[in-house]
Amino acid sequence: MTNKKLQVWLPLIFSLVMIAGMFFGFKLHQQTGSARGYFVRDRRSSLQEALDLIKTKYVDTVKIDSLQDNAMEGLMNQLDPHSVYIPATDLSEANEDIVGNFQGIGVEFNIFDDTVNVLYVVPNGPSDKGGLQIGDRIVKVGDSSIVSKTLPSSDIRRMIRGEAGTKVDLTIVRNNQVMHKVITRGNIPIPSLDASYMMDATTGYIKLNKFAETTYQEFMRAMETLQAKGMKSLVLDVRGNGGGLVSQATNIADEFLDGDKLIVYTQGTNTERREYRASKDGVFETGKLVLLIDELSASATEILAGALQDWDRATIVGRRSFGKGLVQEQYGLSDGSAIRLTIARYYSPTGRSIQRPYDKGKKIYMEEIMDRYRNGQMVNADSIHQNTTKAYKTKGGRTVYGGGGIMPDVFVPIDTSIYTQSITKLYLDGRFNNFVYTYYFNHHGEFQKYKTPGEFAARYQNSADAWSQLVTYAQKDSVNLRNIPAADKKDVQDRIKAYLARLKWRTQGFYEVSNALDKVVQKAREVIANEQLSL
Predict the structure, then answer these.
(1) How far apart are CA 247 and CA 333, in angstroms?
(2) Tens of pLDDT along 329-339?
């Protein structure tokens, strides 16, 4: 009976102790400005005393680390959906997107059938210097075989990665020959910028996937290149961009806004108001600007969108953004773990908060995006109901709303085309990716004649041949593609072309090809052509 009671009360005891520790720790942070850690180092906390007692006196063997992690996760679940606990073992990987790099060998891989295939080798990275090539198949890491239908890709990634300067012995197969490659791991950049190019003589396009420590620098290099090519109008694509560092988003906003315009301000119960303002001459303060957003554009991305919309600086095209108006700060704990704690809300220049309600729990909060699809909000703008009736006025007198994300100025519905069962199966189970990869290497010489993604997009006409081979390939796995609707066939052919471009030129090639058929991008170009800016 005592054992059962202890199991029942342990999580509550841990939670209470941690709440007390976090409260006093946060007060300490306010006084010292330190985000490195909370617990006083020269005294054992009550939590540590409790864990030590359980470890030395408890009737059964328990995993102390698991108990602590579970208690912390339970604590975070009582707060807002974006306050999270990060165990020490996961912290390095969790920080990769923010830092903008990771430690590893510098390859991208996918598992086809049961084997790791190298899809990309970072130029001048550790694998490039160590002799790995696109198309190599990695079969062993050290003495451990990784040829398996069940071994998770996350486990393979952990086996291959490691601290910069350490070595890893890989056994690979190339052209049916077994080879050994010893790779010295290094720091590998994770780009924030997926693509930048000129869509026509005067219109540039930039795609950003996050706001990390290197994002502003990458953005400015792209802007310099595009302006040198004659860019007068810009399509900035932040669809699917889940946010990141506020400073990076405000730095980019500053390049579009003149004077000392307010970009965003943050404020919380325990955090004083802090303003972010334009402070320098921007590189694109007057050109035509269109910002693309969707339901996965969140946080720092919405800060950028809100500032540009409130000042009537850009036309926002797409669908309503995620609706995350909370600011997190990461605090390291004494055991090497960390919490990302919500410390403030942010407000656009007009004073609106775009945070969605989360009082019904994390599960309902996260499922709201799917609810938008079910109730037609992603298909018809008239069906969209904001979570607040409070209206605000932009500089130009337009009405905007808070409480549920950024509403675009020009709505573009999601594609609701329903694929046949065969096409759906083709996409979901990996057959499509496997086929494109194989087709690319079987026709490698043909693709070498194309020097740029633009040239490939304009001249490549072999989609019919690829389609014919795909039909035969899929048939081997009892997937019948012979009698599918013409629209589905065209979609698959277009996707083949975009994925082939990705294999040769990475995301740059993918977007240059796929954007030609992207309805949101097409609408953005119409907006620029019709000069429907600053509405």
Answers:
(1) 24
(2) 999 988 888 98
